[in-house]
Amino acid sequence: MMDETRPLADRMRPRRVDEFVGQSHLLGDERPLGAALAAGKPHSMVLWGPPGTGKTTLARIVAETADAEFLTLSAVMAGVKEIREAAALGRENRKLNRQTLLFVDEVHRFNKSQQDAFLPYIEDGTLLFIGATTENPSFELNNALLSRVRVYVLRALEAEDLGHLLDRTMLDGERGLGGRGLTLTAEAREAITRFADGDARAALGLLELAADLTPADGEIARALVEEAAAGGRPRFDKGGDQFYDLISALHKSVRGSAPDAALYWFARMLEGGCDPLYIARRVVRMASEDIGNADPRGLQIALDAWQAQERLGSPEGELAIAHAIVYLASVPKSNAVYKAYKAALADAREQGSLEVPMHLRNAPTRLMKDLGHGHAYRYAHDEPHAYAAGEQYLPEALAGRHYYQPTDQGLERRIAERLEWLAGLDAAAAKR
């Protein structure tokens, strides 16, 4: 008999690989994980992906495939003591020639010493280890643990996958809604797949709530789904991979001169709850790094947008940031100043404390003048074209070094022409 006190998402949890929805890139017959399960030879692994993509379900299926005892720990609640207790049970099961699968949810929350506690038990096969995480394992798990497991990346479910799951749930009379005489309209089905945003658990939660609001033998309508989904937002994990992926997409869209894409990623971040001032600060960075002297107005527009957000708040300030993003994405691009700065910084770090040439030194006292500070300095404004042709301003060890290489984009083309003309004056002075 169906236990209706359990959430629909838990009741509909797949029990076999053929019931699993999505992740075909992992579970196909020719894929490493799919092949391992088909052969009955599972291995220790870390499952990395967003919520609702099947990490816990997949761990249970692996345990079933291996006929292993399924143990679960939450890194939020457990510690080394619980790990050792699981290992002790694993040793007892080995005596009975049975495997023990330890599933660790939120494994990234374990610290380094706690992660190290798993190592001997994974190494000698006492435990078949499966960790689940929404965070990048490269940053959150230590190398010793990563070297002993395979990392599999789970993807957010496609709308087609979610729709298939909803259809199955509506027909399933044993665990789903098939015995309640309800129907799901095409519009409601589409709305659930959209609001769920790739999360199977969220999709079934919305379906269950909308079904509970629908009279017996009635029709689950789009309006009920929208009511159930009120307040929902797209996935946005502040400080996590999703956060940095979104700001990366925004920055690269600006750099790639794609204003429409840049606006979309900006809107995604706002809808997810990102602080607009954070985005404004990053837009200023884009103006210097990717537009530079090709259009110096970009930096001022970005700064104006930041100030507008500080003074006006939302939504007026956000419109100003959008203004700046579209402008930066649309104008000529140059990273010449960015590259020049990085090169100069590298020399400053690697060349040591090179002496300031005597003619460039400050000479506020008679003693310093007597020591030669500022001697033979040529005041550029008194020279033809306000330029001291042939003068050297770098330390002797770096004479002739060129950091800034202007492009032919926007205003920087004119800058390049002027610098080339000044270089000609230098060359003529050297011949005299």
Give the class-level CATH name of the largest domain: Alpha Beta
- How confident is the prediction overall: mean pLDDT? 89
The CATH architecture of the largest domain is: 3-Layer(aba) Sandwich
Helical content stands at 40-55%
Radius of gyration: 32 Å
Shape by Cα distribution: elongated
**CATH H-tier superfamily of the largest domain:** P-loop containing nucleotide triphosphate hydrolases
> How many strands appear in the DSSP assignment?
7
Number of helices: 21
Largest pleated sheet: 5 strands, parallel
Structural class: alpha/beta
Contiguous runs where pLDDT drops below 50 for at least 5 residues: none
Give the CA-CA distance, first to last residue. Answer: 102 Å
Strand order of the largest sheet: 2-3-4-1-5
**Into how many domains do the coordinates divide?**
4
Can you walk through the features of this model?
- With 432 residues, this protein is of the alpha/beta class.
- The longest helix has 21 residues, at 411-431.
- Helix content is 51%, strand content 7%.
- It is built from 21 helices and seven strands.
Helix and strand arrangement:
Blueprint: H1 8-11, H2 24-27, H3 32-38, E1 45-48, H4 55-65, E2 69-74, H5 80-95, E3 100-105, H6 112-116, H7 119-123, E4 128-133, H8 137-140, H9 143-146, E5 150-153, H10 159-171, E6 183-184, H11 186-196, H12 200-212, E7 219-220, H13 222-228, H14 241-255, H15 259-271, H16 276-291, H17 297-312, H18 316-330, H19 336-350, H20 366-370, H21 411-431
Parallel strand pairs: 1-4, 1-5, 2-3, 3-4, 6-7
Helix pairs in contact: 10-11, 10-12, 11-12, 11-13, 12-13, 14-15, 14-16, 15-18, 16-17, 16-18, 17-18
